[in-house]
């Protein structure tokens, strides 16, 4: 049907008189795409193949009458306008046609200019109604997008965008996959319209090492094949056409929201609506990134530029929950520089602060990107080792201890400074089952290492055995 910016309208002429059909087609060919039928029955068959904007039909025809055709069109295709042609200039026939839902009627013989005037008026009204409907839909979409303004968590942006798309487009199922490209193992997913078993299988496939290449989806579009199709088949799900809506922030955020096409096909107008939602979602994603950056700055130690104790407490709680969810272990290293007060006393606190910054870089080089390094306070540092048992953690601790002992730290113009470190090691859930208990166990193990002569490592289990 005709909408703003679409192709020319389509008109169906129905009359059992060939000359009248040709005359009507000639009169309207510059205004619309015209198809003609010689009977109401063939007109209904044509409407099954392709809808039209306007039906112009004779009242009296062999077989099904024009009034019966009008009744069928109004019942089966209520969005189609109808003009009745009659050879009887009676008020009764005109009123009857209008009462049945006809937009207008014309009396034979038809004058081309009168026909053009009626058709132009009907098509102009349809165009105006279509534009009003489009604007109402756009306004509803904009109102729905206001929810995104309140999203300060990047993961929430993807989930809310998925909900808005499903609420706006004729789709019932969808999912979102997103990640922070600068942070390994940070993938997240959101599902709508799947049962628990399907969601569990999909989560396993999508968050696997192979995963889905999000960069392959560059623009809002309908896709019939791709990485997600392969993942869906691997999860044992049937899949047809998908609407892919990629979202990217200004920093490291990227993700894609996919909707499963339902019974109603996704046309260009719905794609434009999805692009509008995507534009608002990307603005919300940028805002969430800025909020996250500001929040991170509040969690960063000013001297060493690693995380501070406040962040450590939240990160430990998060990692414990993650370890519980995936059945993994978590290890904590508690480090304290040996006799660091002597450095401050001899070289001054400016040199001491510079040494702490150098030490932070040394420690970062000794751990993985997925691990968390924080300055606990003073010359104490804590490291969270994800997916690590106590044996592996002790190996890492020994490597750190050895590296620190072999490093020459700048002495502010004087001789290089040599340092040693004492390290306590504790693991979740073997040594403690809470955040505070885990940090306390590693802290006590560290003090045990100091009592053993410093420059060594001690585990919480060794402390308990002693």
What does this protein structure show overall?
This protein is an alpha/beta fold and 466 residues long. The chain has three domains: 10-131, Rossmann fold (3-Layer(aba) Sandwich); 151-292, GAF domain (Beta-Lactamase), CATH 3.30.450; 309-465, Alpha-Beta Plaits (2-Layer Sandwich). Helix content is 48%, strand content 21%. It has helices at residues 18-28, 40-49, 66-76, 91-99, 112-145, 154-168, 196-206, 227-234, 268-298, 309-326, 340-347, 349-366, 390-406, 435-451, 460-465; strands at residues 10-14, 33-37, 54-58, 81-86, 104-107, 174-180, 188-192, 221-223, 242-248, 253-260, 330-337, 372-377, 380-386, 408-411, 414-418, 421-428, 457-459. Strands 2-1-3-4-5 form a five-stranded parallel beta sheet, with helices on both faces. A hairpin with a 4-residue loop joins β9 (242-248) and β10 (253-260). Residues 1-6 have low confidence and may be disordered.
């Amino acid at each position: 049907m005709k909408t703003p910016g679409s192709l020319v309208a389509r008109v169906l002429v129905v009359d059992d008189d060939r000359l009248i059909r040709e005359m009507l087609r000639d009169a309207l060919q510059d205004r619309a795409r015209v198809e003609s039928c010689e009977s109401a029955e063939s007109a209904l068959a044509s409407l099954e193949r392709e809808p039209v904007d306007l039906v112009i039909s004779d009242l009296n025809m062999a077989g099904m009458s024009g009034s019966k055709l009008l009744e069928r069109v109004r019942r089966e295709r209520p969005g189609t306008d109808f003009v009745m042609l009659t050879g009887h200039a009676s008020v009764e026939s005109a009123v009857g046609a209008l009462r049945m839902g006809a937009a207008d009627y014309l009396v034979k013989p038809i004058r081309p200019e009168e026909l053009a005037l009626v058709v132009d008026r009907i098509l102009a009204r349809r165009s105006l109604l279509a534009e009003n409907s489009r604007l109402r839909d756009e306004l509803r979409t904009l109102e729905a997008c206001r929810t995104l303004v309140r999203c300060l968590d990047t993961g929430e942006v993807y989930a809310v965008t998925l909900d808005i798309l499903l609420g706006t487009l004729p789709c019932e199922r969808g999912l979102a996959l997103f990640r922070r490209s600068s942070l390994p193992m940070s993938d997240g997913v959101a599902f709508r319209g799947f049962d628990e078993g399907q969601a569990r299988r999909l989560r396993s496939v999508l968050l696997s090492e192979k995963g889905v290449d999000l960069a392959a989806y560059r623009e809002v579009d309908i896709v019939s094949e791709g990485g997600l199709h392969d993942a869906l088949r691997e999860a044992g799900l049937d899949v047809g056409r998908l609407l892919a809506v990629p979202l990217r922030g200004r920093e490291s955020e990227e993700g894609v929201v996919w909707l499963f096409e339902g019974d109603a096909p996704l046309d260009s107008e719905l794609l434009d609506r999805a692009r509008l939602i995507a534009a608002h979602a990307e603005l919300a994603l940028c805002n969430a990134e800025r909020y996250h950056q500001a929040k991170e700055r509040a969690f960063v130690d000013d001297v060493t530029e690693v995380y501070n104790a406040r962040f450590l407490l939240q990160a430990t709680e998060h990692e414990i929950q993650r370890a519980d969810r995936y059945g993994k272990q978590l290890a904590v290293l508690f480090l304290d520089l040996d006799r660091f007060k002597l450095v401050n006393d001899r070289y001054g606190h400016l040199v001491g602060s510079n040494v702490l910054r150098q030490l932070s870089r040394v420690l970062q080089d000794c751990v993985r990107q997925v691990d968390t390094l924080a300055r606990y306070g003073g010359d104490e540092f804590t490291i969270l080792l994800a997916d690590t048992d106590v044996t592996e953690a002790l190996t890492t601790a020994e490597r750190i201890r050895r590296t620190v002992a072999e490093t020459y730290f700048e002495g502010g113009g004087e001789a290089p400074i040599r340092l040693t470190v004492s390290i306590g090691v504790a693991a979740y859930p073997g040594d403690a089952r809470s955040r505070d208990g885990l940090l306390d166990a590693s802290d006590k193990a560290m003090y045990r290492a100091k009592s053993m002569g410093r420059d060594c490592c001690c585990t919480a289990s060794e402390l308990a055995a002693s």
